[in-house]
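Quick one: structure tokens for this chain, please?
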Amino acid sequence: MNHLEAVFWDYPQLKSEKNLKKFIKKNKKSEKIYTWMLRRFLENARVVDTFEYFSLQEIADILPEIKLSPYSRKKWKRIIEVYGKTKRK
């Protein structure tokens, strides 16, 4: 199974790694789209797959502001605590 199917089951064009990388690059400056994509990864993707597209610092920076399920928020906070030497805001 394609690792992106869990994230973009409803967006077939984004299941291709090549298309997804282009889409991320094109929309990096669009806060709304970027946040939407990152949220889908944080909620639905494996950690290893999320790190293929987003850095720990990017996740740490957005975590306080992004809407996530309690489970996902707790999981990512713990990942940041354990693996990140990030700047605290």
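The chain has a mean pLDDT of 90.
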